[in-house]
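Handout, page 2. Input:
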Amino acid sequence: MEKCGEAVAVEITSAAAAATESSAERGAAARTASSQSDAMTARQWLALAGLTCSAFVFNTSEFMPIGLLSSIAGGFGLTEAQAGMMTSIYAWAVMALSLPLMVFASRFEFKRLLLTVIALFTAGQFACAVAPTFELLVAARLLVACAHAIFWSIASVMATRAVAPEHGSLALSMVATGTSVAMVFGLPLGRAIGLAVGWRMTFACVGVVGAALAVYMAVIFPRVPAGERFGLRQLPGLFRNHALLTVYVSTLLVATGYYTAYSYIDPYLAQVARLDAGTATMALTVFGAAGLAGSLLFSRAYDAHRLPFLGVALAGLSAALLLLNVAAPFAAGIFGMLALWGACNTAFGIAFQAEIIRYTRPAEASVAVALYSGIFNLGIGSGSYFGGMVSTAFSLSSIGLAGGVLAAVGSVVCLVGLARAGRAAE
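Output:
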């Protein structure tokens, strides 16, 4: 295990060196990347752009129901809390499927796996668009969840392996940028389409984009060998890694707190903040745009100031949730809290993935990230469920405070645990 003070780029370089010993084909790819270390090639930029677009599309799809929650609920004659269960079921499915699917998929070459995942994702979108009942809509979303579970298990690993080792942090930042752009344009655009011509057309449009993306990635993305197959017998070793356990526990707490509030942000903006539909869409756009700033800050500041960066990001996220209700009566206040929330959300999410790559061997990286994805989605589902309970038992205005307390506890666990892991490594 490397010392905590080292940069993520150094860890990725070490990972690439270890991979060379275990696979001649991967070693050749690493040597090719190293020979181009001065600057990335056009092909590498295009490959990263494809992964960024994939992240955009997958995240747009995952969170579209949040922006269209009221419309979907009305279309099937459900309450918003009942329709919100679709988000919980989706997230719990990703949680349950991430590890077994990734263990199964670890035998396949990454590019072939990626194309299969995008095809499955696209089929699920079209199934959502034509689902005649809420139950069938949930079933179609489960199909998308299978694709989601694998994609987010391999996206960050593929990004770092598609470029020279010293460009690893930039590659991770670009994938995170796809998530942020989804918040800027994807969610508001999906919401606008849903409000204009119905929520079904939003799913259909995502399906069309997914099909086009599959063709692009088939042409542009290079072959990325899978490397050593991961076996379940190796799993206990991951859970003996104290730094990983810290990230996993923190992820569950922070994600649960985050989605306690975010799962119901659409009705919150309308009923508590009293924003009209257009202003609410603009507020969600600000949330996503701030995520771009968080991604940029990660690429600039994380390597040199790892724990302080994490501390600021987690503290800012917790503060935004805790102060959400205080800011709600004022348009400037709610916009400001959403901006802080969005920036810190992206920053902590990508930093957690960087920590996982730092503390795992190359053969374990994909499965370790799969566990992270599963735990994060457990948090999404739990947060959505908990948020529904809070809004029903108390009021919709209570979701920020409830989520903020959970996020604050998770933040303390993360910073204390990683500081101890760093001292142990030294």
